[in-house]
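Hey L., structure's done. Input below.
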Amino acid sequence: MFYTCGPNEAMVVSGFCRSPPLMISGGRVFVFPCVQQIQRITLNTMTLNVKSDKVYTRHGVPISVTGIAQMKIQGQNKQMLAAACQMFMGKSEAEIAQIALETLEGHQRAIIAHLTVEEIYKDRKKFSEQVFKVASSDLVNMGISVVSYTLKDVHDDQDYLHSLGKARTAQVQKDARIGEALNKRDAVIREAHALQEKVSAQYMNEIQMAKAQRDFELKKAAYDIEVNTKKAESEMAYQLQVAKTKQRIEEEKMQVQVVERTQQITLQDQEITRKEKELEAKVKKPAEAERYRLEKLAEAERLQLIMEAEAEAESIRVRGEAEAFAVEAKGRAEAEQMAKKAEAFQQYKEGAMVDMLLEKLPLMADEISKPLTSVNKVTMISSGGSEVGAAKLTGEVMDIMTKLPETIEKLTGVNISQVPCTV
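Output:
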């Protein structure tokens, strides 16, 4: 079976499959009859009139205090709702309100006992905040939240507050009389000041009027002087302007002539520039082209000569290396030949020497005939002494024959004087 409740009421379902009980505030729930039970608890706001009669304050003055408190069971907080269900389930709204009222009244009495009458009477907001704070901490454990608390009335049966009021009233009346006297005095002073300011303002106004009249007369005279001066200046300016206009016309004419002359000079400069460009195109450019061509040809020829010189140097180097190699090879061959000849000389001695001598005879004949080849002409003159001329020729031949062994030794390296000869 379905059960519903409004937003100001909560339902608690217990029994089969409901451990702990299900709490719903403002909604609906399905309840199985016979095995489950549903209970309701109100969430309405409760207004409590908290009265504390003849409570002694800290100074022993009995007073009566009345406060108004608004409180309700908090349905949105599950823990507070569970606590309220445990404490107030099955109780009516009046019973719940009575429990909360007694709790509030106890806290209100405790706070009154710790304060003086003056503190409660003069600072009601502070007293209300203290009651609200202390009561809320206890009621929240019951699942009740204090919405508000205000101090409604404070009175006593001993006329204590009335006496405080009398003293205050007397003070206020005294202050009022003093204030009234001060206000009257200030009014008279302000009235006198106002009259003085009025007279001063009147005199100042007359002074300002006289000053304004004087300034008017002075300015009028100054303006008249200025007007007359301006008129004279205007007449002189007219004549001066006429002269300036004539001068400007002459200057404009001269400027026109200057412009014409400038244009002529510009045209001449342009003609000179044109002729220079024409000369440059016809003479200078071809000359530069020819110079460039000759420079390139000279550069190519220089490069060619450099390359030829480098090739010649390389050829000479290679040829020198080849000649050196040939000389070296020839030297090695001659050395080997000389070694073999020396070996043969050691073996054959006289026969080898004769063979070498025969081999070198053509060279010997050549060396012997060299002095004779240098003689261009031989003239033999006989003057009856032919024997003398023959003797001279024979002497030259003998000199050649004398030098023959030396020549043979130079060519063959053999001392012919040491060679045994059999004729």
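Residues 385-393, 419-423 have pLDDT under 50 and may be disordered. The first strand starts at residue 2 and ends at 4.

-- N.
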